Amino acid sequence: MQTSLLLAKKKAFIIAIISVSWLFFGGFKALNDEQGWITWGNRFLNESYDPTVEPKLKKYEIILTPDHFIRLRKTYQQGKQEYYSFNVKRFTDLNYIPGTAATDTLQIKTQADDIIYQTYEDPKGDIDSMATSWEIPVKKMAQPRLDSLRQALIFLKGKGL
């Protein structure tokens, strides 16, 4: 009697885990398609970005677009805006740079000066320039999470529009 009850509980537990996984990941094949990687990439970027390193930051928006651009717009308390953007098809490398106890840096590299950097309403003057690397402050993360971001970028780079 106890053995069948124990087996029933194990079976219910396994079904619950599969159901939660299905809901959470949108199905097991979610990361085998472009939209799955874009959805995952957006969740990753928004959960990982660490705005606390800039105390004067009023708001920010970081997004991986359907046409494979990663964009970050930051607005500061005094109205200055910074804008970063690059197309994932130009991605070449990803580095994780240890920092403080809570924050690290994610460094994205591109083939050439493919990263757009612009400022608006900057009292020191507006900037419109290009770069080959972009450093993004991120919360501490485990290596498998970083590896999955690299996988997403490589997958989307191969889908280049």
List the helices and strands and how they pair.
Elements: H1 2-25, H2 34-48, E1 57-64, E2 69-76, E3 81-87, E4 91-97, E5 103-110, E6 115-120, E7 128-131, E8 133-139, H3 143-158
Antiparallel strand pairs: 1-2, 2-3, 3-6, 4-5, 5-8, 6-7
How would you describe the overall organization of this protein?
This protein has 161 residues and is α+β, with helices and mostly antiparallel strands. Helix content is 34%, strand content 34%. The protein has three helices and eight strands, in the order H-H-E-E-E-E-E-E-E-E-H. The chain has helices at 2-25, 34-48, 143-158, and strands spanning 57-64, 69-76, 81-87, 91-97, 103-110, 115-120, 128-131, 133-139. The strands form two sheets. The chain has a five-stranded antiparallel beta sheet with strand order 1-2-3-6-7. Strands 4-5-8 form a three-stranded antiparallel beta sheet, with helices on one face. Helix 2 crosses helix 3 (143-158). The longest helix has 24 residues, at 2-25. The chain is globular. The relative contact order is 0.15.
Could you say which overall geometry the principal axes of the C-alpha atoms support? Answer: globular
Low-confidence stretches: 12-30
| Adjacency order of strands in the biggest sheet | 1-2-3-6-7
Average pLDDT over all residues: 84
How many domains make up the 3D coordinates? 2
Order of helices and strands: HHEEEEEEEEH
Structural class: alpha+beta
Number of DSSP strands? 8
The percent of residues in helical segments reads 25-40%
Please tell me how large the radius of gyration is: 20 Å
Distance between the termini: 60 Å
> How many helix segments?
3
Largest sheet features: 5 strands, antiparallel
What is the percentage of strand-forming residues?
Answer: 25-35%
